[in-house]
Design goal:
The N and C termini lie far apart (138 Å). This protein has one helix spanning 2-89. It has 93 residues and is mainly α.
Length: 93
């Protein structure tokens, strides 16, 4: 009887220990999940900010391209006008 009671107490202690270990592992897993969720949220915010920067950079490149094209066409028009003016100044033969 004494041996049976000692065995029961030993098993009860082991069960209690296993329950505490399981609870600790559960809390650790919960903290890891929370940490990963925080990381995901932070990265999503960073992605949004980076996407905004990319969109702004694209717009700036487009604006520069338009200004370059406009400047080039203006320069061509000016060169054409200068050529006409130079031809008009030449003495007629």
């Amino acid at each position: 009887m004494l041996a049976a009671k000692a065995a029961e107490q030993k098993f009860a202690q082991e069960i209690l220990l296993l329950k505490k270990e399981a609870e600790t592992e559960k809390r650790l897993a919960s903290m890891q999940v929370k940490t990963l969720e925080d990381t995901i949220a932070r990265q999503a915010t960073q992605i949004e900010a980076l996407q905004k920067q990319v969109d702004e950079a694209k717009q700036q490149v487009q604006d520069i391209a338009v200004k370059t094209i406009e400047g080039a066409s203006g320069a061509k028009a000016l060169a054409h006008i200068n050529r006409i003016a130079m031809e008009a100044k030449r003495p007629q033969q």
